[in-house]
Design a protein that fits this description.
With 327 residues, the chain is α/β, with parallel strands linked by helices. Helix content is 54%, strand content 9%. The protein folds into two domains: 160 residues, P-loop containing nucleotide triphosphate hydrolases (Rossmann fold); 124 residues, no CATH class.
Length: 327
Protein backbone atom coordinates (compact mmCIF):
# COMPACT_ATOMS: atom_id res chain seq x y z
CA UNK A 1 0.00 0.00 0.00
CA UNK A 2 1.10 3.61 -0.53
CA UNK A 3 2.84 5.11 2.51
CA UNK A 4 4.23 8.45 1.40
CA UNK A 5 4.12 10.42 4.67
CA UNK A 6 6.86 10.45 7.32
CA UNK A 7 5.74 9.11 10.71
CA UNK A 8 6.84 12.34 12.44
CA UNK A 9 4.64 14.34 10.08
CA UNK A 10 1.64 12.08 10.70
CA UNK A 11 2.20 12.28 14.46
CA UNK A 12 2.00 16.08 14.29
CA UNK A 13 -1.58 15.70 13.01
CA UNK A 14 -2.51 13.10 15.61
CA UNK A 15 -2.28 10.14 13.25
CA UNK A 16 -0.56 7.26 15.02
CA UNK A 17 -1.71 5.06 12.13
CA UNK A 18 -3.30 5.64 8.76
CA UNK A 19 -6.64 4.31 7.69
CA UNK A 20 -7.24 2.05 4.70
CA UNK A 21 -9.56 2.95 1.85
CA UNK A 22 -11.62 0.24 0.22
CA UNK A 23 -14.31 1.82 -1.92
CA UNK A 24 -17.01 -0.02 -3.83
CA UNK A 25 -14.91 -0.09 -7.02
CA UNK A 26 -11.89 -1.31 -5.06
CA UNK A 27 -13.95 -4.13 -3.58
CA UNK A 28 -15.21 -5.06 -7.03
CA UNK A 29 -11.63 -5.45 -8.30
CA UNK A 30 -10.48 -7.23 -5.14
CA UNK A 31 -13.29 -9.79 -5.25
CA UNK A 32 -12.72 -10.43 -8.98
CA UNK A 33 -9.04 -11.16 -8.36
CA UNK A 34 -9.71 -13.36 -5.33
CA UNK A 35 -12.25 -15.36 -7.35
CA UNK A 36 -9.68 -15.66 -10.14
CA UNK A 37 -7.03 -16.96 -7.75
CA UNK A 38 -9.35 -19.63 -6.34
CA UNK A 39 -10.35 -20.59 -9.90
CA UNK A 40 -6.70 -20.69 -11.14
CA UNK A 41 -7.23 -17.99 -13.78
CA UNK A 42 -4.98 -15.68 -15.79
CA UNK A 43 -5.55 -12.06 -14.72
CA UNK A 44 -4.12 -8.62 -15.45
CA UNK A 45 -4.61 -5.31 -13.62
CA UNK A 46 -4.00 -2.45 -16.04
CA UNK A 47 -3.77 1.24 -15.20
CA UNK A 48 -1.60 4.34 -15.36
CA UNK A 49 1.26 5.05 -12.95
CA UNK A 50 0.08 5.82 -9.43
CA UNK A 51 -3.53 4.67 -9.87
CA UNK A 52 -3.36 2.07 -7.08
CA UNK A 53 -2.75 -1.20 -8.97
CA UNK A 54 -0.20 -2.54 -6.49
CA UNK A 55 -2.40 -1.49 -3.56
CA UNK A 56 -5.23 -3.63 -4.96
CA UNK A 57 -2.88 -6.62 -5.20
CA UNK A 58 -1.70 -6.05 -1.61
CA UNK A 59 -5.29 -5.90 -0.35
CA UNK A 60 -6.02 -9.19 -2.13
CA UNK A 61 -3.02 -10.81 -0.45
CA UNK A 62 -4.04 -9.35 2.92
CA UNK A 63 -7.60 -10.68 2.61
CA UNK A 64 -6.47 -14.16 1.66
CA UNK A 65 -3.86 -14.32 4.43
CA UNK A 66 -6.48 -13.14 6.95
CA UNK A 67 -8.87 -15.87 5.81
CA UNK A 68 -6.37 -18.61 6.72
CA UNK A 69 -7.82 -18.94 10.21
CA UNK A 70 -6.49 -22.47 10.68
CA UNK A 71 -2.93 -21.29 10.15
CA UNK A 72 -2.63 -23.48 7.03
CA UNK A 73 -1.50 -21.54 3.97
CA UNK A 74 -4.08 -22.12 1.23
CA UNK A 75 -2.59 -19.70 -1.32
CA UNK A 76 1.14 -19.23 -1.89
CA UNK A 77 2.05 -15.93 -3.60
CA UNK A 78 5.20 -16.05 -5.69
CA UNK A 79 6.42 -12.54 -6.52
CA UNK A 80 8.64 -12.00 -9.55
CA UNK A 81 10.91 -9.05 -8.77
CA UNK A 82 13.29 -9.17 -11.71
CA UNK A 83 15.23 -5.95 -12.34
CA UNK A 84 15.28 -6.73 -16.06
CA UNK A 85 11.79 -7.78 -17.02
CA UNK A 86 12.53 -7.05 -20.68
CA UNK A 87 14.75 -10.14 -20.69
CA UNK A 88 12.65 -12.27 -18.33
CA UNK A 89 11.61 -15.60 -19.83
CA UNK A 90 9.52 -18.44 -18.50
CA UNK A 91 12.65 -20.14 -17.13
CA UNK A 92 13.04 -17.31 -14.62
CA UNK A 93 9.43 -17.76 -13.50
CA UNK A 94 9.92 -21.52 -13.12
CA UNK A 95 13.03 -20.90 -11.01
CA UNK A 96 10.98 -18.69 -8.68
CA UNK A 97 8.26 -21.35 -8.39
CA UNK A 98 10.75 -24.08 -7.46
CA UNK A 99 12.63 -21.87 -4.99
CA UNK A 100 9.56 -20.37 -3.30
CA UNK A 101 7.17 -23.33 -3.25
CA UNK A 102 9.55 -26.19 -2.46
CA UNK A 103 12.86 -27.09 -0.84
CA UNK A 104 14.30 -28.23 -4.16
CA UNK A 105 16.77 -26.58 -6.52
CA UNK A 106 15.70 -25.89 -10.13
CA UNK A 107 16.81 -28.40 -12.76
CA UNK A 108 19.26 -27.16 -15.39
CA UNK A 109 17.49 -28.65 -18.39
CA UNK A 110 14.54 -26.50 -19.55
CA UNK A 111 12.16 -29.43 -20.10
CA UNK A 112 13.13 -31.05 -16.79
CA UNK A 113 12.60 -27.74 -14.99
CA UNK A 114 9.12 -27.32 -16.49
CA UNK A 115 8.18 -30.85 -15.40
CA UNK A 116 9.64 -30.18 -11.95
CA UNK A 117 7.63 -26.99 -11.48
CA UNK A 118 4.44 -28.68 -12.73
CA UNK A 119 4.97 -31.56 -10.27
CA UNK A 120 5.52 -29.18 -7.36
CA UNK A 121 2.40 -27.19 -8.20
CA UNK A 122 0.41 -30.34 -8.88
CA UNK A 123 1.28 -31.90 -5.55
CA UNK A 124 0.06 -28.73 -3.82
CA UNK A 125 -3.17 -28.50 -5.82
CA UNK A 126 -4.12 -32.02 -6.90
CA UNK A 127 -2.64 -34.18 -4.14
CA UNK A 128 -3.48 -31.98 -1.13
CA UNK A 129 -6.90 -32.29 0.50
CA UNK A 130 -7.28 -28.50 0.71
CA UNK A 131 -6.24 -27.94 -2.93
CA UNK A 132 -3.53 -25.47 -2.01
CA UNK A 133 -3.20 -22.83 -4.69
CA UNK A 134 -0.27 -20.86 -6.06
CA UNK A 135 -0.47 -17.38 -7.56
CA UNK A 136 2.38 -15.86 -9.58
CA UNK A 137 2.42 -12.04 -9.26
CA UNK A 138 4.45 -10.01 -11.75
CA UNK A 139 4.60 -6.21 -11.38
CA UNK A 140 5.57 -3.90 -14.26
CA UNK A 141 4.46 -6.69 -16.57
CA UNK A 142 4.13 -4.17 -19.43
CA UNK A 143 7.92 -4.39 -19.72
CA UNK A 144 7.82 -8.12 -20.54
CA UNK A 145 8.22 -9.33 -24.11
CA UNK A 146 4.97 -10.53 -25.66
CA UNK A 147 6.58 -13.91 -26.45
CA UNK A 148 7.21 -14.40 -22.69
CA UNK A 149 3.52 -13.78 -22.06
CA UNK A 150 2.81 -16.56 -24.57
CA UNK A 151 5.23 -18.87 -22.72
CA UNK A 152 3.49 -18.12 -19.43
CA UNK A 153 0.14 -19.00 -20.97
CA UNK A 154 1.59 -22.26 -22.29
CA UNK A 155 2.97 -23.24 -18.88
CA UNK A 156 -0.33 -22.28 -17.22
CA UNK A 157 -1.98 -24.93 -19.41
CA UNK A 158 0.45 -27.68 -18.23
CA UNK A 159 -1.31 -30.76 -16.81
CA UNK A 160 -0.53 -32.84 -13.74
CA UNK A 161 -2.46 -36.09 -13.34
CA UNK A 162 -4.84 -34.82 -16.01
CA UNK A 163 -5.62 -31.59 -14.14
CA UNK A 164 -5.03 -28.10 -15.56
CA UNK A 165 -4.50 -25.27 -14.75
CA UNK A 166 -2.45 -25.72 -11.56
CA UNK A 167 -1.91 -22.06 -10.70
CA UNK A 168 -3.14 -18.53 -11.26
CA UNK A 169 -1.09 -15.68 -12.71
CA UNK A 170 -1.64 -12.00 -11.87
CA UNK A 171 0.07 -9.42 -14.07
CA UNK A 172 0.22 -5.77 -12.99
CA UNK A 173 1.14 -3.15 -15.55
CA UNK A 174 0.57 0.02 -17.53
CA UNK A 175 -1.84 0.23 -20.51
CA UNK A 176 0.92 -1.06 -22.84
CA UNK A 177 0.34 -4.47 -21.23
CA UNK A 178 -3.06 -4.68 -22.92
CA UNK A 179 -1.42 -4.02 -26.29
CA UNK A 180 1.16 -6.77 -25.72
CA UNK A 181 -1.50 -9.29 -24.67
CA UNK A 182 -3.55 -8.38 -27.74
CA UNK A 183 -0.67 -9.32 -30.07
CA UNK A 184 -1.49 -12.96 -29.39
CA UNK A 185 -5.23 -13.52 -29.42
CA UNK A 186 -4.91 -16.95 -27.82
CA UNK A 187 -3.26 -15.20 -24.85
CA UNK A 188 -5.56 -12.17 -24.75
CA UNK A 189 -8.76 -14.24 -24.76
CA UNK A 190 -7.62 -16.28 -21.77
CA UNK A 191 -6.87 -13.28 -19.55
CA UNK A 192 -9.38 -11.65 -17.25
CA UNK A 193 -8.53 -7.98 -17.84
CA UNK A 194 -9.22 -5.53 -15.00
CA UNK A 195 -8.73 -2.16 -16.71
CA UNK A 196 -8.81 0.90 -14.44
CA UNK A 197 -8.86 3.15 -17.52
CA UNK A 198 -12.22 1.71 -18.58
CA UNK A 199 -13.79 1.79 -15.11
CA UNK A 200 -15.86 4.97 -15.26
CA UNK A 201 -15.91 5.58 -11.51
CA UNK A 202 -12.33 4.55 -10.74
CA UNK A 203 -10.92 7.33 -8.57
CA UNK A 204 -13.53 9.87 -9.64
CA UNK A 205 -13.86 13.05 -7.54
CA UNK A 206 -16.08 11.48 -4.86
CA UNK A 207 -13.84 8.39 -4.66
CA UNK A 208 -10.79 10.59 -4.08
CA UNK A 209 -12.57 12.58 -1.37
CA UNK A 210 -13.61 9.34 0.33
CA UNK A 211 -10.05 8.04 0.06
CA UNK A 212 -8.67 11.11 1.83
CA UNK A 213 -11.34 10.86 4.50
CA UNK A 214 -10.69 7.16 5.17
CA UNK A 215 -6.89 7.36 5.16
CA UNK A 216 -6.28 10.71 6.89
CA UNK A 217 -9.53 11.30 8.77
CA UNK A 218 -9.67 14.44 10.94
CA UNK A 219 -6.17 15.56 9.86
CA UNK A 220 -7.63 17.09 6.67
CA UNK A 221 -10.85 19.10 6.84
CA UNK A 222 -13.65 18.60 4.32
CA UNK A 223 -12.90 21.70 2.23
CA UNK A 224 -9.20 20.83 1.91
CA UNK A 225 -10.12 17.24 0.97
CA UNK A 226 -12.25 18.56 -1.88
CA UNK A 227 -9.46 20.84 -3.11
CA UNK A 228 -6.85 18.05 -3.02
CA UNK A 229 -9.24 15.63 -4.75
CA UNK A 230 -9.82 18.19 -7.50
CA UNK A 231 -6.09 18.60 -8.14
CA UNK A 232 -4.99 14.96 -7.86
CA UNK A 233 -4.83 12.48 -10.74
CA UNK A 234 -4.84 9.37 -8.56
CA UNK A 235 -3.86 7.87 -5.19
CA UNK A 236 -0.10 8.43 -5.53
CA UNK A 237 -0.59 12.04 -6.62
CA UNK A 238 -2.94 12.56 -3.69
CA UNK A 239 -0.31 11.23 -1.30
CA UNK A 240 2.25 13.68 -2.69
CA UNK A 241 -0.19 16.61 -2.38
CA UNK A 242 -1.10 15.56 1.17
CA UNK A 243 2.55 15.51 2.16
CA UNK A 244 3.07 18.98 0.70
CA UNK A 245 -0.01 20.45 2.38
CA UNK A 246 0.81 18.79 5.71
CA UNK A 247 4.30 20.26 5.61
CA UNK A 248 2.79 23.69 4.90
CA UNK A 249 0.26 23.33 7.72
CA UNK A 250 2.92 22.18 10.18
CA UNK A 251 5.17 25.10 9.21
CA UNK A 252 2.46 27.65 10.08
CA UNK A 253 1.56 25.84 13.30
CA UNK A 254 -1.67 24.12 12.28
CA UNK A 255 -2.67 20.64 13.41
CA UNK A 256 -5.40 20.25 10.79
CA UNK A 257 -4.92 20.75 7.05
CA UNK A 258 -7.48 23.30 5.86
CA UNK A 259 -8.16 25.09 2.58
CA UNK A 260 -5.57 27.76 3.39
CA UNK A 261 -2.86 25.10 3.08
CA UNK A 262 -3.97 24.02 -0.42
CA UNK A 263 -3.09 26.70 -3.00
CA UNK A 264 -5.89 26.89 -5.55
CA UNK A 265 -6.44 28.82 -8.76
CA UNK A 266 -10.03 29.58 -9.74
CA UNK A 267 -9.73 27.04 -12.55
CA UNK A 268 -8.61 24.35 -10.08
CA UNK A 269 -11.53 25.17 -7.79
CA UNK A 270 -13.90 24.77 -10.74
CA UNK A 271 -12.26 21.46 -11.63
CA UNK A 272 -12.58 20.26 -8.03
CA UNK A 273 -16.29 21.02 -8.05
CA UNK A 274 -16.87 19.76 -11.58
CA UNK A 275 -18.94 22.83 -12.55
CA UNK A 276 -19.18 24.48 -15.97
CA UNK A 277 -18.67 28.15 -16.83
CA UNK A 278 -22.42 28.47 -17.42
CA UNK A 279 -23.24 27.02 -13.97
CA UNK A 280 -20.70 29.25 -12.28
CA UNK A 281 -21.96 32.29 -14.19
CA UNK A 282 -25.52 31.60 -13.09
CA UNK A 283 -24.39 31.26 -9.45
CA UNK A 284 -22.30 34.44 -9.62
CA UNK A 285 -24.88 36.46 -11.55
CA UNK A 286 -22.41 37.08 -14.38
CA UNK A 287 -22.32 36.26 -18.12
CA UNK A 288 -20.48 33.10 -19.09
CA UNK A 289 -17.93 35.12 -21.08
CA UNK A 290 -17.14 37.29 -18.05
CA UNK A 291 -16.66 34.23 -15.86
CA UNK A 292 -14.36 32.76 -18.53
CA UNK A 293 -12.23 35.94 -18.43
CA UNK A 294 -12.06 35.85 -14.62
CA UNK A 295 -11.19 32.16 -14.38
CA UNK A 296 -8.45 32.41 -17.00
CA UNK A 297 -6.94 35.57 -15.52
CA UNK A 298 -7.92 37.92 -18.36
CA UNK A 299 -10.14 40.08 -16.15
CA UNK A 300 -8.72 42.19 -13.31
CA UNK A 301 -12.09 43.63 -12.24
CA UNK A 302 -12.09 43.10 -8.46
CA UNK A 303 -15.89 43.06 -8.19
CA UNK A 304 -16.21 40.25 -10.75
CA UNK A 305 -13.37 38.25 -9.18
CA UNK A 306 -15.03 38.58 -5.75
CA UNK A 307 -18.38 37.42 -7.17
CA UNK A 308 -16.84 34.35 -8.81
CA UNK A 309 -14.90 33.48 -5.64
CA UNK A 310 -18.02 33.90 -3.49
CA UNK A 311 -20.05 31.69 -5.84
CA UNK A 312 -17.37 28.99 -5.76
CA UNK A 313 -17.21 29.13 -1.96
CA UNK A 314 -20.98 28.77 -1.71
CA UNK A 315 -21.01 25.85 -4.16
CA UNK A 316 -18.17 24.17 -2.26
CA UNK A 317 -20.03 24.62 1.03
CA UNK A 318 -23.16 23.01 -0.43
CA UNK A 319 -21.13 20.10 -1.86
CA UNK A 320 -19.35 19.57 1.47
CA UNK A 321 -22.60 19.63 3.44
CA UNK A 322 -24.18 17.16 1.03
CA UNK A 323 -21.23 14.75 1.32
CA UNK A 324 -21.26 14.98 5.11
CA UNK A 325 -24.96 14.09 5.17
CA UNK A 326 -24.37 11.12 2.83
CA UNK A 327 -21.32 10.04 4.86
Amino acid sequence: MIHYQKKSLLNHFGLSSRGTYRGLIHEKFIESIKDGIYDNQLMAIVGRYGQGKSTIAELVSYDINQSNQSGVETVKFVYINSQNLEKLNVSGVLNAIVWDVSNESPKNNAEAKARQAARILGQRYVDSLKKKRTCIVIENAHRMHHSTLMQLKDFWETKFMGVSPLLSILLIGHPELTEKLARRKEVFWRFQLLDMEKEEKWMCFDEKVNYLSAVFGHAIDSEARAFIAGKAEGPLHMEILVRETMETAKLIGKHVVDAECVPQTLKEKMSALGVSLAQLGEAAGLPKSTVDDVVNGRSKTIDNIDKVNAALQEMMARRTKKMEVVG
